[in-house]
Write a sequence for this structure.
């Protein structure tokens, strides 16, 4: 018997005037759609390497491709658009009390191009992962601008505006022939209206890396 589809994600929290609370763009305003954006994430395996993957829309068109950097002491990831243009560069901080990643605009690693920093709330997270995200302008890191938590192993993670219960995106398993029969890493991400879907995709890449490190 076919497994039932997952329940639809809960809608975002209404604001005080009845509208949806809209987060500010992180990567760029044109990545903030006024409607729900459904994305599919599929890991690509080759003979020579693992870990690169693509993010597509509901029609299967590539929205973002993710490449790794293997000639560096840092664990780097580069997010590219459908035309191969660099969107975001991710760098893991090697010396850090917590798992910490920094995201830069394009293929830069200059401090002036820093977009945000993501930190695990604790190094001891055996089951669920919780991370706080601080925009580049938030230098004190006292209050987070976004947060994400959940079980990446179960592909059940939620993304929130600030340290609140206001949902801006959710990740869930995608039930398909490809993911079930072929056993590939294939899951979906629902990005709510006006949230930056490239920013959310970048957070998904970080979660993927954290999960890969835990399994190594």
């Amino acid at each position: 018997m076919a497994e039932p589809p997952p329940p639809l994600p809960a809608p975002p929290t209404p604001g005080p005037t009845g509208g949806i609370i809209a987060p500010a763009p992180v990567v760029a305003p044109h990545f903030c759609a006024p409607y729900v954006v459904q994305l599919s994430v599929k890991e690509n395996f080759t003979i020579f390497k693992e870990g690169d993957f693509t993010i597509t829309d509901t029609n299967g068109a590539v929205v973002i491709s993710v490449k790794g950097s293997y000639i560096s002491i840092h664990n780097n990831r580069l997010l590219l658009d459908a035309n191969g243009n660099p969107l975001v560069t991710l760098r893991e901080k090697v010396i850090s009390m917590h798992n910490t990643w920094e995201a830069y605009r394009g293929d830069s690693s200059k401090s002036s191009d820093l977009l945000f920093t993501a930190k695990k709330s604790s190094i001891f997270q055996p089951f669920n992962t919780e991370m706080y995200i601080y925009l580049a302008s938030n230098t004190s890191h006292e209050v987070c601008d976004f947060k994400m938590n959940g079980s990446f192993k179960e592909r059940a993670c939620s993304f929130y505006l600030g340290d609140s219960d206001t949902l801006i995106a959710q990740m869930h398993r995608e039930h398909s022939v490809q993911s079930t029969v072929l056993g590939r890493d294939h899951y979906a991400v629902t990005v709510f209206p006006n949230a930056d879907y490239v920013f959310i995709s970048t957070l998904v890449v970080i979660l993927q890396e954290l999960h890969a490190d835990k399994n190594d």
